[in-house]
Amino acid sequence: MIMEKGSDIVSAKVIGIKKQKFICETESKEILVIKRPLKLKSDKIFTQIMFDILQNELWIPVNRKLRRFIKYDWLDISVKQFAF
Questions:
Q1: Cα torsion 53, 64, 24, 30: sign
Q2: Of 65, 66, 42, 52, nearest to 17 (Cα)?
Q3: Of 5, 9, 71, the residue nearest 37 (C-alpha)
Q4: DSSP sequence for 42-63
Q5: Rounded to an integer, what distance in angstroms lies between the CA atom of residue 19 and that of residue 4?
Q6: Cβ atoms 63, 74 nearer than 8 A
Q7: How open is the CA angle 82-53-55, to the nearest 5 degrees?
Q8: Which residue of 42, 49, 69, 83 lies most exposed, with the fewest beta carbons within 10 A?
């Protein structure tokens, strides 16, 4: 799904994981480095999910401006502005 140009919420896929950072690439080939959310710093399940997303090349919603993963799917309008 290609989002509006200039939108802060974009689709991205994880292309690399280094220590506490996730390297993501948007559909427009922009590279985003997203820090691991502090609340999830030692969460092994979150880490495994991110490796699974990397391996399966899934697209996930991220906030390009804030460099954060979106906590909820962008299809749910009522929670569109929430982020980790």
A1: positive
A2: 52
A3: 71
A4: T-HHHHHHHHHHHHHT-EEEEE
A5: 31
A6: no
A7: 165
A8: 42
The Cα 37–Cα 54 span in angstroms is 17
pLDDT digits (tens, 9 = 90+) for 30-61: 999 999 988 888 888 988 999 999 999 999 99
Residue 38 tokens, joined: 């502090």
- β-pair partners for 69: 62
Question: In the block, which residue shows the tokens 């280094």?
Answer: 18
Q: CA triplet 63, 64, 68: central angle to 5 degrees?
A: 45
* The token pair that represents 57 in the structure block: 């090349």
**Closest Cα partner for 28 from 8, 53, 11?**
11
Say what the pTM is.
Answer: 0.75
